[in-house]
């Protein structure tokens, strides 16, 4: 399967992983690395906001929902209020319909259930119109 | 994934193995180490909360949500199932159920740890 994984290195896409769980941070970072997408990792929504306030910008943000200090819903709203137009994909374990709706309405472009896999990440990229060369 | 791991780990573990490459030849073992370090911390927190006799079900559920999330990410299916049961007992405020299920969580976690240790030793 490793041979079939497309590379987006030429597209120079960048991503931000926002998750408070160390295992998920490592996984998502590696998944993005495998696709050739340079990425940073932060531990909660507040850090995601802070990194944007410092002037950084990303093509894609993978946003967990439940996090301390500032959760994914609050962080997404705050980023949109700041004028951040990056594609934001909510990534969370099975949430009820009400939570998903609230998360989407906060400003997400897409939503995917954890655990993430290469194929789920590729689905996100396809749905958000990032060109994936195979 | 060896036969000895079947039932304990699901297809998510194979996703981890697919991410292992020449750049990170020990990726799976590194993630497993991270998982056990993180889950030990969570088990300790839950143990302490239960020993105090304080059944703050919200807090317990929060800890277990994190534990379940990590377990799901590495494909630890049996541990994940027990975590789900624990959260159900938290949801209905059943202290005895929480205590009983937590013993099962710890048991499955310890079994998985032993199996993965053997698995990594055998694959060297």
Automatic annotation (TrEMBL), chain A:
It comes from the Eukaryota. SUPFAM superfamilies: CheY-like. Keywords: Phosphoprotein. CDD domains: REC_hyHK_CKI1_RcsC-like. Pfam families: Response_reg (PF00072). The modification 4-aspartylphosphate is found at residue 64. InterPro entries: CheY-like_superfamily, Sig_transdc_resp-reg_receiver, ST_Response_Regulator. GO terms for biological process: phosphorelay signal transduction system. Residues 14-129 form the Response regulatory domain. PANTHER family: TWO-COMPONENT RESPONSE REGULATOR (PTHR43228), TWO-COMPONENT RESPONSE REGULATOR 24 (PTHR43228:SF12). This is Response regulatory domain-containing protein.
UniProtKB/TrEMBL annotation, chain B:
The keyword Transcription does not apply. Residues 24-124 form the HPt domain. It holds the Pfam family Hpt. Its main location: cytoplasm. InterPro entries: AHP1-5/YPD1, HPT_dom_sf, Sig_transdc_His_kin_Hpt_dom. It comes from the Eukaryota. The modification Phosphohistidine is found at residue 65. One of its GO terms (cellular component) is cytosol. It is found in: Cytoplasm, Cytosol; Nucleus. The keyword Cytoplasm applies. Keywords: Acetylation, Cytokinin signaling pathway, Cytoplasm, Nucleus, Phosphoprotein, Two-component regulatory system. GO terms for biological process: cytokinin-activated signaling pathway; phosphorelay signal transduction system. Gene3D superfamilies: HPT domain. PROSITE patterns: HPT (PS50894). One of its GO terms (molecular function) is histidine phosphotransfer kinase activity. Histidine-containing phosphotransfer domain (HPt) contains an active histidine that mediates the phosphotransfer. Functions as a two-component phosphorelay mediators between cytokinin sensor histidine kinases and response regulators (B-type ARRs). Plays an important role in propagating cytokinin signal transduction. This is Histidine-containing phosphotransfer protein. It comes from Brassica napus (Rape). The lineage of its organism: Eukaryota, Viridiplantae, Streptophyta, Embryophyta, Tracheophyta. The gene is BnaA05g36880D.
